Amino acid sequence: MLQLISLLVENKPGSLMRITGVLSARGYNIESLTVARTLDPTLSRMTIVVDIEPQLRSQVIKQMNKLVNVLQASDLTDSPAVKREMALLRVRAPISSRTAILKEAEIFGARVVDSSTEGFALEATGDSEKLDEFIDVMRSYGEIEVTRSGAIAVSLEAKKLRLAPPVSRHATAADEADEKLETRL
Amino acid sequence: MSSTTPAHRTSGVTESKLMSGSQILLECLVRENVDCIFGYPGGVTLPLYDALYDHPIRHILVRHEQNAAFAAEGYARSTGRVGVCCATSGPGATNLVTGLVDSMMDSIPVVAITGQVSTKLIGSDAFQEADTFGITRSCTKHNFLVKTIAELPQVVHEAFYIASSGRPGPVLVDIPKDVFQAQAHYTPVSSIHLPGYKVFTEGHTGQIRRAAQMIWEAERPFVYAGGGIIAANASEELREFVELIDAPAVTTLMGLGGLPAEHPNYISMPGMHGSYAANLGMTHADLLIALGVRFDDRVTGRLAAFAPHAKVIHVDIDPAEIGKNRAADLPIVGDVKRVLEKLTKVLQETAPESREQNSTGRAAWWRQVREWKAEHPLTPEVSTSEIKPQHVMREIDRLSGGRAIVTSDVGQHQMWAAQFIRFNSPRLWINSGGLGSMGFGLPAAIGAQFARPDKLVFSIVGDGGFQMSIPELATIANHALPIKIIVVNNGHLGMVRQWQELFYNNRLSQVELSSFPDVEKLAGAYGFKGRTIDAVHQLVPALEEAVREPGPYLLNVRVTPFENVYPMVPAGGAINEMVLGAPQPVEV
Q1: What pTM did the predictor assign?
Q2: Pairing between strand A81-92 and A143-148?
Q3: Could you confirm whether B177 is annotated as catalytic?
């Protein structure tokens, strides 16, 4: 069953590898994955859609939460969340069908981002099913080329973010070491 | 949503010193109270080894990097402190991998320092370059690639903090050659901020109260304690807890010594080669108090049939262990030491009104457990005509008196040692439990002997594992480490042979180890004593001679070649379906 995981992670080299490693080590195939940094440039938001047996879902989330670079991993599969995907689509179509294409695009709320004698480039957003339909419809007008973004999601519930506080290194040990350093240098 | 930026604050120390990356690394190690590291030098770690040349930290030169990792584990397992190993880039780093996975599986705090090719060469397939950061991602609790000298001190202290806190584990720090060589002003690190690294220690007070209630309500409580007790230094708390609730208790392979073997409440080890009483106790308990355990398949047997009548209280510091294999009726996430302290307190408060409520049932339970113990006790096979491996364990046990450090390799001798050698305190029994790495026992003994020079250290190894470790005889000889190496030599890969015998129609495929070296000559070649014995009457005198010998001693004991480890739960079986020695299963 497809699971929707949202993660807040430190924007550091290797973070992505650690997270996908939790999945690949168990032989799960990722359907889609999006990453971008948040308002805080040191952090990234990651949305993963992955096929996992339902009884193993919580184990995977726990394993992700254990990662040092992960501030929070949450399972949005069954919780209130808005999920969106974007598709960029180029359709090659004869002049005769251009009006019809524009009408269809309007129905799907898609925008024209480029227009040429060859056809249109369109952008559409929505949930995956809506985009599937949109792509199907456009295919009926001619040759198409599509790039999909994969899902991004935002939870509609306020999730409390628990972070570990700074830990001070043992003062006396450091002081002792300071003294040792003095004597050595 | 709010978020925090990791703000790396330093102390008020204003004076800073210009130091090389190598010096800064060593300085950080000193601040982490590291007194010795196990390693092997190479091209990119030349600057580090130059700094080590006249540095007070002791470097123990092993003969293979894998053994540096195992020795660091032996050091960590015998003390609870972080073990440190060091290797060069490429092959040096890849040789560490088995040891890293080993410490990952057994939750042992280890910091591995590896050299890396210079930052400008990374990714160019440079000489001795390997993607250590990528390779070790899944075999460490966390790992770092240090790209600049500025981040070095922070990273090193983070590595030690991560390795030693929460559920301990290995952390690798990969340092490029130019970072070792660079110069920077060093300022001590005063705090560590890892916002995503959450450690749960205290345990939920409400859950602890509920646990106390469940414990008093149970008629057939059973304590199942594991490596977490050792990692948390919670053996005192465990003893107090067990005595207060007066329940029978088992400790797993990783938890041996967590409760003194001679304690009246102690049953034995449970699981695949556990005792009859331990496994039946688990099977018939109505409450399983699981403390720092992970319901490993070698303990539970067929999960669906494991402790079928029991409610489970599961205490673990790692939230991901809760419900991983067996659903917990009452989970408590926390440091088992802290949780046991609090739980014992609650139990003491509630004892007066609750203690007697099931006294009849509990007395019957104890009678039953004692009966099981008496029915099929774990007794070592002894023969008058040949040396049984179990007999070797009994004699080592007698010499140890529950006090010696015993490291073991992996296989039959490991199980016999776990069954028949008693450990009256934690951190004496050192073995590769989770990963089952052959070649572990000897280098682990090196680490343990360096960490505990005061202790008598036995390294019990099979003839297979020993031959994986022979290079380290040089390290032992170098430092005249008084390790007593006991090779339990049956001329076979005994455990594999046992399975081929029992489950593969006795088709013994590639398990015979002929051409074992003459140990007298072998040890002699390294400059210490070695001896082979094959007669029963030689066993005790030879072991006593080994112990009396002030230096290392290599004792090769020719034991009966076809002895098998019993009891045994066949793979996939329920733990109450044990083969007790005769090849017929006993259903209870």
Answers
A1: 0.93
A2: antiparallel
A3: yes
